[in-house]
Amino acid sequence: TGHCPLNSHLHRIKRSPSPHCASCPDEIETVRHYLLDCPQFARERSLLTRSLRKSTLDIPFLVSDTAATTAVLNFINATKRFHASLGDVPPNDLTLPPEQCQSLTPKTRPPKQLPRLTNTR
Fold this sequence. Notes:
Layout: H1 7-12, H2 31-37, H3 42-52, H4 59-64, H5 66-79, H6 83-86, H7 91-94, H8 98-104
């Protein structure tokens, strides 16, 4: 759904004057740009890639594979991009067993369906 504190979403809800990345003024700050493309976070992305033992990363893997959850949350904390709105995101508090996640799922969705991030690029 793309609902996260990145400028593409914040601009849609009138919380940011621009949808563009602060480091890359010609790029819309989407989830894809933040996680995979922004040169501002190249060092943190390199650590993410090494910690997952993968040569390339893709959004479906990063947002749906349970093995990637802690590594992605560590990336988010290391970039400090969400720090002003969320503070530090503790990985252990957000890694819940599937039976607990199901109780957090809105009733309008089928059980165990994970939210999807959309790419506006």
